[in-house]
Amino acid sequence: MSGMKSTLSSRQICVVAATSVGFVVSQLDVSIVNVALASIGHDLGASVASLQWTVDAYALAFAALMLSAGSLGDRLGARRLFVGGLALFALASLACAFSRDVAQLIAARACQGVGAAAMLPNSLALLNAACGHDPRVRARAVGLWTAAGAVSIAAGPIVGGLLIAAFGWRSIFWVNLPICAAGIAATLVWVEKTPSHGRGDGIDLSGQALAIVALTTLVGAVIEARPLGLLHPFVIGAFVIALAAAGSFIAVERKSRAPMLPLALLGERTFSAAVLFGIGVNFTYYGIVFVLSLYLQRVLGRTPLQTGLAFLPLTGGFLVSNLASGPVVARFGSRGPMIAGALLDAAGFAALVFVDAHTPTLVLLLPFLLIPSGMGVAVPAMTTALLGTVGQRRAGTASAVLNTARQAAGAIGVAAFGAFAGHGASAASAQIVDAVRWSAAISAAILACAAMVARGVRKRAAPEGADATQRARRAAE
């Protein structure tokens, strides 16, 4: 281990820059759209439930299709899928900008999610290939990759606020076009083609369909539970369908010759711990950002630009902590940074339990700094730990499993925490304040549990460990 290099070559830096574009645009849309929610709701007459669907249509498509996209990348070549995802994301952004009602916007957001699903797992596969499966180099590369996403998360609220003030909410989707174009050009020039591992088993269409049904009906039931009531036939039926689809999905994956979710991967302790950790992190963060957007604008009366400025510590804090995480993980391994990051994150959420309708924005500074600091340290460590459990051939599938779980958890977090805020076009201030408090308390408890889960992660994955894991999996099969 001591003989390994820990610095990135110029070629590897170029690959990080190109592959980071996919993460940048996928995260940029999350932060920009959250700032625009109040404006979208006012312009299109959208209820809180419709705003939840505007956020979750993207997250659901992202989550439901990412596993298939990762598998396709492994089979057909990660670069091909990554470039295709960037192109689709750009076209879907155009459709968002031209939407005339909330239904069109939700549909276009779902198309953005399809493009993001193709981009994200394959960007990590390209990154992993460029690092030669060296854990120290990979840790630094992942830190830079996540830092690039942190920059977009930080810039999103400010850019969004300025664009909304000057040109209206539709303009926030135009920024994706030049970014996607630059990403396609950089990938074609700097990133080498990855080998395809074609197999004759085809795509797991049954598993894919069941995953879409399970995720969509679950999120739909959670979103509609507040306006319709838990005992409404639609809500009960959606929960039943989600449970049945989830059970059928597991049964299909066990028998499939080419499963979209290789269940054997979940038998590896570090892999499953990293996935569970990611679920907790995204559920809490996506959910709290949604209710905080409503809180800042509908309770505290902030404009979109003021909201963007208020969010700057919450989003900008990722940059410093992401950059610090790479060297820390490279030296100490993943377990410690994951535990410390989860506890720091939990402390930030705990500080939000005490907000009310008159809390000064300055008081929010502490939790808005603690939350991204904890996440920024923990998430690169989590990603590095997961990639260290698989070989290069399965890197796309493995990263897709992680990010599918995270995106699905984020969608459910928005649905669950958003339900606390009411359902009308103008939810009461008291409901939104209660939503922030309950969401913060639940998040702090979840992240404390995530810190315990992180104890199951190996301190450091050896580069040859992935091949050993693959051999064990093949022997088990």
As residue ranges, the low-confidence spans are 462-477
* Cα-atom radius of gyration: 21 Å
Head-to-tail CA distance between termini? 31 Å
Can you count the beta strands? Answer: 0
Structural domains: how many: 1
Number of helices: 15
Order of helices and strands: HHHHHHHHHHHHHHH
Which structural category do the helix and sheet elements fall into?
A: mainly alpha
Beta percentage is under 5%
Commentary on this structure:
The protein has 15 helices and no strands. It has helices at 10-44, 48-76, 78-97, 102-130, 135-167, 176-190, 205-228, 233-255, 269-299, 304-332, 335-351, 365-387, 395-419, 429-453, 465-476. Mean pLDDT is 83; it is low at 462-477.
Topology diagram in text:
Elements: H1 10-44, H2 48-76, H3 78-97, H4 102-130, H5 135-167, H6 176-190, H7 205-228, H8 233-255, H9 269-299, H10 304-332, H11 335-351, H12 365-387, H13 395-419, H14 429-453, H15 465-476
Helix pairs in contact: 1-2, 1-4, 1-5, 1-6, 1-9, 1-10, 2-3, 2-4, 2-7, 2-13, 3-4, 3-6, 4-13, 5-10, 5-12, 7-8, 7-13, 9-12, 9-13, 9-14, 10-12, 11-12, 11-14
What are the salient characteristics of this protein?
477 residues; mainly alpha; Growth Hormone, Chain: A; 15 helices; globular
TL;DR of this structure?
It contains 15 helices and no strands. It is mainly α. The two termini are 31 Å apart.
